[in-house]
Structure formats: C-alpha cells, structure tokens
C-alpha cells in the first residue's frame, strides 16, 4: 500500500500512515462515501491475508467498525476495516522518556470508561483477550474529521518515505512494498485529543467461555495474567488482570515473575515450582529478599524523573506530583483485588466498575 492508493472503487483514498501491529497496517484515509464536503477522515486497517476471514472477531464483535471490504492482492485476500479516525493509544502517550502520569481526575475518568467498556464486552458474552493500554485509543475532536488533505499535511507533516532495500542488494520482490512510510508522530496529536477513549483490536477476542481450540494468547508478558502465563488458561478474569488500570505493575519481561512475587507475595503451587530460576531470586520459603507492595509503588509515583525539564502537556500531572493518602488507599484496595493470583479470588468487572476509587 502506498500514499494515494484508492480502494473500494475509489471510496477510500490513503492519505497518511498511522501505524502497524502484529497482523495489520493502519492508515489514515478519506472516506468519500460521506456526503459532507470531500468526505471524512477515517482509519483504514488492512489485515494480513492469513489474518483475514469472514468470522474474524474484529468484524463480529465491535460496534466501532463502520464498514469493511475485501481487497485481493499479491499475497492473497485482505480484510479492510473502516473505523473512526482516532488518536494514539494510552501506551503511546505514556511511553515517553520522563514516564509521565495522567492527571488524577483524567486517569479516573478514562479508567472508568475502560472498565465500562470491558463490562459491556463481557456482558455481551465475549472476552477481549488483549485488553491493554495499546488497545485503548484517545478520541479526536470532531472538527478533525472534516480536515482537508492540505490541513492534514500542515498539522501532521507530509508523509516521509524511504526505499526498501534487501540485505543481499537484490531487487525487492513483488510480494513486498517498494517503499516504507513513516507513521504520524504521537506528539502531533496533543492539542486535538478528547479526554475520552475507544477500545480497539478485537483480533484476539472470542466468545466466552470457550476459546478456539488453537487459541494462542498474544498479550504482552507485562499484561498477562498468572493463569495464562503458567497454564495457558484464558477467560474474562484474565481481561481484568490485563486491564489493571493502565500502567503495568510488572513492566520488565526479563524480571516479570520476580517483580510479581516481590509485589504480590509467593506464587501458589504448582506455579512456584514451575519457575526454574526461583532459587536464584528468593528465600527457601518462596518469599522475595526485598518486597515492594502496591501501596509502596503508588506512594513512589511523582518522584523526580530522569528529564526534569520535559514538557508534559495538559493531560499529564506536573513533575513530582504525589498521590494523596486517600487516593493511595482506595487505588491500593482496587488493584489488590484485581491482581490476585487465582482468578477465582479476583473481583469481576462489575465490582471494578462499582469501586469507590472511580467516585473519588
């Protein structure tokens, strides 16, 4: 796909690139089917041929898909999904050198929206399967949808492309693009974001309680529930752990299990015995040499970061802003209930939605 390509008999034209994932590439396009002016801006998600099928959860579950069509290409048939043009993910906005934190009121508002969305998905009989901050996008202001191509390029910059070159120096084959397109930078969205979110990417979703027989969880390690990690067991309870209010408490895949035990205590059997390096990390009783509770982690938020002069923008807390004691206690209570090892001991999404932290 290239800038300027048109699909669906000229209905959708590619304007810029938004990003890519495990099984798709995401583009900014103009939907000319809209009767207003020259059409509206939309997100066009092009799925890999091997990820495209009529029963794809991305087509069956969400109400966010406005339309879809199939394009036959050199690599097979590809599903194209049309949805509202949205901003960056929460993960993209928070993954910055200074590790910013959303304003307290905004964090509660967005966490409540995410919890309500998860409850809606579960009530409809589905499990999302990859409910992480990378799949929670900020909405954009309505005026942006009506921007002209010139306005798009003035605000985001013109697409930056580069030639695809092979390691051998041979010409690129017909099954690969001849050029790469750089995605729009996340910082360019700062002043056109709404403080509301939308849930995306239902490619890992399935109808509860029975996932497909060949189901392979694709959630990143830092968001993966213990039962999924140790037993490959999935379900709505795993959604609750994976969506544990934005920033994963265990952000390092290399030391994920030691960090988990340092925060939540000894792993239950037989999971603890399945951890091969346990003798190098813990005492004989399975307890960590040094612990750091959820409460302690929350109290540490707001300590000086690596880049004191970094411009955080209006959505983030100012440097060194600490949580007050009441919020620490409420959020500790909620997270301790969401992050319990055993899924049967974890609170359900309805209890999450009703928790007093959201009303603080």
TrEMBL record:
Biological-process GO terms, alphabetical: regulation of mRNA processing; spliceosomal complex assembly
Keywords: ATP-binding, Kinase, Nucleotide-binding, Serine/threonine-protein kinase, Transferase
Broad class of enzyme this protein falls into: transferase
Protein name stated in the entry: non-specific serine/threonine protein kinase
Residue ranges annotated for the Protein kinase domain, each copy included: 12-358
Enzyme Commission number, as recorded: 2.7.11.1
Superkingdom of the organism of origin: Eukaryota
Keyword Cell inner membrane included in the entry's annotation: no
MF terms (GO), sorted A to Z: ATP binding; protein serine/threonine kinase activity
Catalytic reaction list: L-seryl-[protein] + ATP = O-phospho-L-seryl-[protein] + ADP + H(+); L-threonyl-[protein] + ATP = O-phospho-L-threonyl-[protein] + ADP + H(+)
The organism of origin for this protein: Lentinula lateritia
